[in-house]
Amino acid sequence: MKKFILAALCAAATTAALAADLQVPYPEGYRDWHHVKSMVIEEGHPLYGSFGGIHHLYANDKAMKGYQKGKFPDGSVIIFDLLEAVHDGNAVTEGDRKVVGVMHKDAKKYAATGGWGFEGFGGGDRTNRVVGENAVSACFACHAPQKDQDYTFSKLRD
Predict the structure, then answer these.
(1) Maximum Cα–Cα distance across the chain
(2) What is the pTM of this model?
């Protein structure tokens, strides 16, 4: 019985360690990275329910090389900063942050999702992980058709 309990505890610890190892880190200082582009998804768009608002995309230096070459090297990080769109006085301004979405490239670590790790931090709070183990269904399912573009939707603006 002791061996069974010890084996179960070891398996649980190993599973927790593997899950923690797959966690995408919060992107410290991302607003100082290269701004790739911005866009607004408004009511009427098919993705409005999930992604309505103002989107800013940021890329670290490695991701910038990926945008330029069409293939992203390990260590590339792309940020999808989603904020509420506030319509007031014939202007659209940023409201509260809804989520900081992160794509982190590590071909070996995230092989099951095209080499990319995905995470969303609700409200931009580094402790509020809203994707976690649902990366395949919550993120990669939409990105999979973009395989020819290394699973990314965005391109650099001229």
Answers:
(1) 71
(2) 0.85
